Amino acid sequence: MENVVALEQIVNKLPGVKGAKILANEGGELKEIHILADIKKPAKQLVRDIETAIYAASGIKIDRKIVSVAQISDDEQETAETGTYEESLVDASARFNLISVETKSSSKRLTVSVNIDDDGKQLSGSSVVDINDDEKYMAAVEATVAAIRESLPSFRVEFIERLKYGLNDVILVVCSAIISGERRKEAGARLFKKDSFNDIVLVILETLNKM
Asked: Which residue, 58, 108, 165, 197, is the most exposed by fewest CB within 10 angstroms?
């Protein structure tokens, strides 16, 4: 939609915003706004800036609840560019942690299997895609969702997209699950490094652990 593209361009010019994705329904009503930003400004202030910019540019008043903000630090960006990024796959304070991501390929298919630790219980899921699929990373998404649903049946990945951030790719994700009787949404972002399948699974788990 031409109007949506124009609004994305405006939001992308706001200080601190590294990427924006706006989704609208067939009638042109804005339904979801997903933002990748740095951490220099509080998320609430950023949402207010987005609300003001969209209203000033189009006269459209948005509900702040449709805006999801994922923030990433510039320190992580700089470290990733120098190739010295290091991290542990296990966070002792988190409920869900990645154990392993396994891949098997043939002439036509790629199978991605994900194993996750849920407070001592192992969860497993897998997905199969065409070996020539340009978006093979979606198999890691599907395998991760399948694994998590063993423990949390209401879990969903609502939105996922790769964005450019400086010289690197970033994955932006919005997840949801029913927590304490209501569906909650949380956004997260992560830099792609050598193993993109690992990064896909990790950004989903990090986002889920924030709920």
From this structure: 108
